Amino acid sequence: MALRILLIEDDPTLARTLKSLLEKLGFEVLISFDGKRGYELATTEEFDLILLDFLLPSMDGESLLKSLRQAGVNTPVLVLTVVSDVSKKVDLLSIGADDYLTKPFHLEELLARIKALIRRSYKKSSDLLKAGPVLVDTSKKKVYVNDREVMLTASEYSILEYLLLNRGKFVSRDEILLKALSSRSQPESNSVEVLISRLRKKLGIRDFIKSARGFGYIVE
């Protein structure tokens, strides 16, 4: 399943350019050209990230952001702004923005910010994750199988933690790369398949991590 981004941007050229570039990287991107429509989409559909232009027709970015947070929408929001005033940027963070990027920007920096925000939003809410005989202590980055500690590499650990955080649902190879391994510029292997294979062997539990072609991997 592709990661979903809501892009709220009133510049059609910029919006369509960003949509095309991000879709080539594997994201699903939905565009809104005005604030009110953006608010409707953000409050009725599920997104992994919102890219929000600061200057919008019908409802400006600041008002939209405040309304989203008041409505209980906790989706990470990255504000795109031409405003260079530091105090205004601080105000954006104080009313609920997770990050901001000043226009014009490089695509590489935008992508790095997107990955960081998505990964941050999926961090654990508990120090202990358990599935069957597997116990993960996320505060100490330790893994146990039937009370026996299993030594994993950093990338193997990140994948296992992410699978447990999403227990019961399939996660794709691209999702693992973006959400579980995004903070690692050079994982121990470029192949998610290789990492999963090594992880299965180290855990030593038959069918603990299941896979299905076209769906990805799952811990039930």
Automatic annotation (TrEMBL):
4-aspartylphosphate-modified residues are: 53
Sorted alphabetically, the keyword list is: DNA-binding, Phosphoprotein, Transcription, Transcription regulation, Two-component regulatory system
- Organism (species): Thermocrinis minervae
Q: Name one GO biological process term.
A: regulation of DNA-templated transcription
Q: Which CDD domains match?
A: trans_reg_C
Q: Which PANTHER family match?
A: REGULATOR OF RPOS (PTHR48111:SF22)
The Gene Ontology terms for molecular function here are: phosphorelay response regulator activity; transcription cis-regulatory region binding
Q: Which residues form the OmpR/PhoB-type domain?
A: 126-220
- Name of the protein this chain belongs to: Two component transcriptional regulator, winged helix family
Q: Which residues bind DNA?
A: 126-220
